[in-house]
Every structure is written in structure tokens, then in C-alpha cells.
Amino acid sequence: MVKAAINRGPSPEPPPGTRILVVGGGYVGMYTALRLQRELKAQLRDGRVGITVVAPDPYMTYQPFLPEAAAGSISPRHVVVPLRRVLDRCHIVIGEARSIDHAARTATVTTLATEEEEGTGPVEIAYDELVLAPGSISRTLPVPGLADYAIGFKTVEEAIGLRNHVIEQMDIASSTRDPAVRDAALTFVFVGGGYAGVEALAELEDMARYTARYYHNIKPEDLKWILVEASDRILPEVGEEMGQYAIRELRGRNIDVRLETRLDSCENRVAVLSDGARFPTRTVVWTAGVKPAPILAATDLPLTERGRLKCTAKLQVEGVEQAWAAGDAAAVPDVTSAEKDKECAPNAQHAVRQAKVLAENIAASVNGKPLREYAHKYVGSVASLGLHKGVAHVYGRKLKGYPAWFMHRAYHLSRVPTFNRKARVLAEWTLAGLFKREIVSLGSLEHPRAEFELAAGGGPAKPGPKPGPEPGSGPGPKGPGGKEN
Ligand SMILES: Cc1cc2nc3c(=O)[nH]c(=O)nc-3n(C[C@H](O)[C@H](O)[C@H](O)COP(=O)(O)OP(=O)(O)OC[C@H]3O[C@@H](n4cnc5c(N)ncnc54)[C@H](O)[C@@H]3O)c2cc1C
């Protein structure tokens, strides 16, 4: 085990001043570190404080833009924010915390180099103050075939992979002579009616319908889109009335919305639903909720029954000192609610605001000042249902159609971090208004060596679209989440 000094990288030198370790580079991790840079500017300059951020990727993902990235309205690079540029006074470690021993104030971290380094093992990072913000992962259920054939929708890789996959399915459908292969290729099943699932489906359907005009043998009506939701409503974030509107809008586009229905199985590329319906398909997208990141279980910190970190309204981990948390990973009491024991919901609205209070409280604690409580009343939500279509319920005002879609864009443009990103996204939207939509699939980017391997006479041939066996007849090439070959 290598001992790491907190702001000098993995070296055994003694760290200066108060060592703050931030685990996670998402909403909470990035915004907390950003605010800490500002609040503790002087201390950072003279070495009385050091901040280290551990994150698996060198960027923060602005998740609400993922559906638009999947639709091709925003390029993937503009959905992410480079941590090194934004957090220029922090020490960034690209890696994953594997366990945390808070009693000993150490985190065990594997970095990109860990596997390459022989005999040294993971890095051990010592700290004084811990900010634990690893967010959440997809909450899956033991549905047969799910791990093999489905894909989630939480990362930019998944969003772009799904876009490529959908267009590739249209290419398969256009070129196959087998009607069963064609039918399965043009059937897309989405599970989960929250904003991730609904926005992803709506944006992709919109994109695919537009793309169909460039295929001589595919009509938009040939594409089958199915939304499966276990409860009796979708988009609970925008309220019942707007949720009903969203259902009508989707059904009006021929999208098959099935409420009070579950996915029972997707083995052998057949989606079997609890209402008895069976859909041969090559695409199952799972967005049925989230659960706290697994690292939380590898700490000595207190967790709730649902596995979130038990926190106080001051964003401290309950019952321990010098540990802080916020966002999807933290069970923060909602002090604005009359309901007893109500927790803040896992969403960006809370995550961003909690990060601000969290950073201010850490700065207050370092400077010996009093801490304040986090209090924010949920103001509602906006959701996009494709280009020029949307639904919103914000501050009691209900909007639908174009005004809601416009509000969705304006809101997220104001929220996406850095002026640089705002300008780039706005430029993309403006250009998209002037030119035709991009309809290309760059799935081959996922296999950059294939062409050369073929030329060099070794390895597999370039992975092209493989129709595989007839859907339902046995395991074929995996769905968008699985690795081919
Ligand atoms: C498609 C989609 C659309 C959404 N749209 C909206 C919306 O419109 N409005 C809204 O309010 N919310 C929305 N959300 C939810 C919102 O994005 C989350 O609530 C928010 O990102 C939570 O912030 P967080 O910092 O807790 O987690 P995240 O932003 O997920 O960040 C967690 C970070 O920690 C990292 N991490 C995980 N494990 C480790 C580890 N062991 N070591 C180091 N780092 C680790 C992760 O890689 C990630 O970078 C959406 C989510 C999705 C997926």
C-alpha cells in the first residue's frame, strides 16, 4: 500500500494544513470543491488547506443534458465539464475510492495506474475532512436477462452508445431480408417513467422518426417504442396533471405507454411484460430508479435502511466528526417538509444547493465559525419530450408544448457549469436550428483498432452490425449494454 500526501499526489511527503478529501466528481463533488476553492482561497494559497478530488472520470457529467446528447442536439464533449480546468487549485486523482476507514481518516483508492504498477497496490489517502459524494447507480431488479441485454442511461458513454445503437438498428432493419430480425431491430423498450427514461425515450424517438426519412424502406410508423412503468403515472416530478399530459403527448406519437406494468424478463432478446405482452427486441433501456453508490457499504459510516449516508441538516454524517455528504448518496432531512423523517429526493436541484451549503459549512468549520442548516423547498421540474415539445411544473405554474420545452432549455442553459459550456451549447442549438439534424451512427468509434487489426492480418474483423440468431431463438450478440463477440 502506498501512502499518499493529500495535495502532492501519490507520494509519502507529509501533507500541509487541513487535508480535505472529496470523493466523487459529479454535481456535489465538483460544486463543493469549486466553492471551497473560493471560500478558502487564502488558505489554499499559503498551504494551510489542501483539497484532493477523487473521481473515476476527469470530467463532471451534466446528466440532464444526456437525452439531448443521445438525440444529437448537443455533442458529447459539451455535456461534460473538465475537472482539471474548473478545479485548478485542487489536486485531481482519477481513480475510485474502494473503501474508507474514517476512524483512521484514510481512503483506499485505485487509480488508472494501479493495475500497471507491480507490487504496490492501491493508494492510501489520508485526510482530515471527508466529503463523500459518490452519487447513485442504476437500481436493478433480478429480472432474467437484464444484466446481459439491457443498458442504463446515467453516463455520457451510455447516452452516445444508445444513439449509435438505435441508428445501427435502423441500418440492420433496412438491410435484413428476415422480417423477424427487422421487427426486433425496430422495437425499443424503455423501463421506468421518471425523467431519465421519459426524456431519453422521447428524444430518441424524435431523432429516429426524423432519421427514418433518409431510409428508403423504413417509415416512422414501422418503429415500435414501448414505455413500461410499474406505477400508475409517469414523470411524478411534474405533478399528476402534467404527467397525464405527457402520456397523451407520447401516445399521440404512437408510443406505447404501459402503466402498472413491469418487465418480467428480457432473456434471449425477448422483453416479456407482466401484462403478458412479448416483444422480440434488441434494445432494452433500464431507468427504473437509482440506489446509492456501492462504496458507501465499504465505509465505517452510518447508513439508512436504503443504504444512503445518515446525515444531519448541516450535511454532516450523523454521529461522527469531520465527515460530510450530500446529493444522491446522502439521506438529508428535508426540514421544509411537515412530514416527519422526510428526506430530500435524489435530484440535481438538491445536489447543487446542498453542495453550496456543504462547502460553506466546511469553510466555517475550518475557520471556527457556526454551521447552517440546508433548507430548500422543491420548486418543481421541467422535462423535454423531444424537439419543441416539453412539460413543466415550476413554482406552481404549469406549462406544456413549446413554452415548456423552451423553459427546459433556458433553465438548463443557465445551470450548466461554466460560461464556456453555456456558450458552446447555445452555439450548437443555434446551428441546429439552421441546418439539418445529424443522422450518423459512429458505433465503430467503440472499436478503433478493428480496421488496423484486419489490415495487419490478425484479430477479429471490423465489428459490423450482426443480425445474430432470430430473436428469441437463443443468446445472440448482446444488446447495447453488453460487449459484442
Ligand atoms: C438522464 C438523467 C437526467 C436527469 N435529469 C435531471 C433533471 O432534469 N433535474 C434534476 O433535478 N435531476 C436530474 N437528474 C438527477 C441528477 O443528475 C442527480 O440527482 C445528480 O447528478 C446527483 O448528484 P451527485 O453529485 O449526488 O451524483 P453524481 O452527479 O452522479 O456524481 C457522483 C460522482 O461520483 C463518482 N463516484 C462513484 N463512485 C465513486 C467512488 N467509489 N470513488 C470516486 N468517485 C466515485 C461518479 O462516477 C460520479 O462522477 C438526472 C439524472 C439522469 C441520469
Automatic annotation (TrEMBL):
Listed EC numbers: 1.6.5.-
Keywords on record: FAD, Flavoprotein, NAD, Oxidoreductase
SUPFAM superfamilies documented for this protein: FAD/NAD(P)-binding domain
Extent of Pro residues compositional bias: 462-478
Region (Disordered): 451-485
Domain of life: Bacteria
Domain FAD/NAD(P)-binding: 19-355
Entry keyword annotation includes Oxidoreductase: yes
InterPro entries, per the entry: FAD/NAD-bd_sf (IPR036188), FAD/NAD-binding_dom (IPR023753), NDH-2 (IPR045024)
Molecular-function GO terms, alphabetical: oxidoreductase activity
PANTHER family per UniProt: NADH DEHYDROGENASE (PTHR43706), NADH DEHYDROGENASE-LIKE PROTEIN RV1812C (PTHR43706:SF45)
Family to which the UniProt record says this protein belongs: Belongs to the NADH dehydrogenase family.
Official protein name in the record: NAD(P)/FAD-dependent oxidoreductase
